[in-house]
Write a structure and sequence with these properties.
The chain has 400 residues and is of the alpha/beta class. Helices cover 39% and strands 13% of the residues. The structure holds 1,4-dihydronicotinamide adenine dinucleotide (NAI) and ligand SAJ.
């Protein structure tokens, strides 16, 4: 909308549509509110609950996983069906949702055949996976390189031309299934590397050394880039997308599956490390700082800290208090960090929000019991915290 196009945003959720038409967004994302307000005010962006005729249809609906870790394609299917009545010759249809290999060819193309035309000849169809990272969406939308996987060469070229109107990165052309697989492998690459870092953290805890030091020094090698260990992998992408490959290739995708399981087991590890620090958990008060899936955003989807909260909730007589400046409503949530920490037996840093740099631990110390802290992100300086009388523990370092 900011680059010369007239855009209709279609969403089945009326709240999204009403907010957008009022120039408002309902997610936390730097600079997006001002941009949306501007393009809505200029009449370049409007929202509706149903599609209408257009030259280009971009499908960017959710692709979550079912309970059994299979891809839930209902939204892509419904969205594709919803545009069929409005398609005309030479329209473009682009799937941006992260999808299992074969989605464009096997799921979408047969639905598009329902339009009164031959989708292979009359439409330009492609998959162009979205690669932006939440928190930097407006920058990456423009600067990232992009892949366009068209059902034929002309589709790829047409879609490339459209994206060139706002993308400064390079745009690479391929077929739909290759594009689908590229997107899945990008997130799988990150997930597998994080699993490797988490495995290192567990090994170092047993060895009695610091995984974060191993990471720092190993990464001085020109071809090594060990990722960061943590309390688990969250978000609706890394924790989800690798399963789309495992689902299709259960016998072959061994490392991918193991990485998922390794990362999914991290909340239980943080739970058992907490138990080791405190001796026993029953009757204790646990304070968790940060519950979102990563720093400086308000997104709770697949957050490993929610899993950790559930584990603590199962303990008899445990008291939980949470503090997260990005979250407005959640069980056990306090809006004052001092209230959250009062009488606490253990403070766990779950997410390294930048705002947590400013916590005055001098003020917190008199409020807590024995001053145990478990930092799952290597966020604080152990010496400084311990100098205030705390007992600091680090995920990935063998102290208990
Ligand atoms: N959010 C991100 O930064 C990125 C997202 N993706 C992928 O993009 C896709 C969408 O993700 P998000 O935007 O985060 O999801 P989201 O859940 O925040 O938004 C999707 C919207 O689609 C709407 N919707 C569902 N069915 C619909 C239909 N039939 N017609 C119209 N609207 C419908 C929902 O009401 C919702 O508002 C997913 O496949 C995701 O994996 C990929 C890269 C980055
Ligand atoms: C390959 C890649 O970088 N993918 C990005 C990813 O965005 P997302 O916000 O999910 O990524 P993230 O920052 O890696 O965070 C995912 C999770 O992984 C954890 N995390 C991340 C890096 C690390 O070294 N250790 C670690 O534990 C984070 O704390 C978080 O819980 O997934 C996005 C998506 O597909 O939606 C994608 O567009 C983004 O570019």
């Amino acid at each position: 909308a900011n680059n010369g196009h007239e855009v209709i945003g279609v969403d089945v959720n009326e709240a999204v549509v009403n907010n957008l038409n009022a120039g408002k967004i309902i997610i936390e994302e730097p600079f997006l509110d001002a941009l949306v307000y501007e393009v809505v005010s200029l009449g370049k962006l409007k929202a509706k609950t149903t599609p209408e005729e257009a030259d280009v249809f971009i499908i960017a609906v959710p692709t979550p996983i079912n309970e059994d870790k299979t891809a839930m394609m209902d939204y892509v299917e419904a969205a594709t069906r919803s545009i069929v009545p409005f398609l005309k010759k030479n329209d473009m249809v682009i799937l941006e949702s992260t999808s299992p290999p074969g989605t464009v060819e096997k799921l979408m193309m047969p639905i598009l055949e329902g339009a009164d035309l031959n989708p292979y000849e009359d439409l330009y169809v492609a998959h162009s996976p979205e690669r932006v990272i939440p928190g930097k969406i407006l920058i990456e939308l423009v600067e990232n390189n992009r892949i366009v996987g068209g059902i034929n060469e002309i589709s790829s070229k047409k879609v490339k031309k459209l994206y060139e109107s706002f993308v400064k990165g390079e745009i690479f052309l391929t077929d739909p299934t290759t594009a689908e697989m590229c997107k899945l492998m990008e997130n799988t690459f990150r997930d597998v590397n994080i699993a490797l870092a988490n495995e290192l953290a567990l090994i170092c805890e047993d060895l009695g050394i610091n995984a974060w030091d191993v990471r720092t020094f190993s990464n001085k090698h020109p071809r090594v880039d060990i990722h960061m260990p943590g309390p688990g992998v969250g978000g609706h992408c890394l924790a989800v997308d690798p399963w789309f490959i495992v689902e299709k290739f259960p016998q072959t995708a061994k490392i991918i599956k193991l990485a998922r399981e390794t990362n999914d087991a991290m909340p239980a590890h943080v739970f058992s490390k907490s138990k080791k620090i405190l001796g026993q958990l029953a009757g204790k008060k646990i304070t968790i700082l940060g519950i979102t899936y990563k720093p400086d955003i308000d997104d709770l989807r697949e957050s490993p800290i929610l899993e950790l909260i559930e584990l603590f909730e199962e303990v008899k007589d445990i008291r939980l208090s949470l503090f997260d400046p990005f979250v407005k409503e959640f069980k056990h949530l306090e809006d004052d960090i001092k209230v959250a920490c009062t009488d606490s037996d253990l403070i766990i840093l779950g997410v390294n929000h930048k705002a947590f740099e400013d916590i005055d631990f001098n003020e917190i110390k008199p409020l807590v019991k024995d001053g145990h802290i478990l930092d799952t992100r290597n966020f604080y300086d152990a010496d400084k915290i311990n100098a205030l009388g705390f007992d600091y523990h680090l995920l990935g370092k063998g102290t208990v």
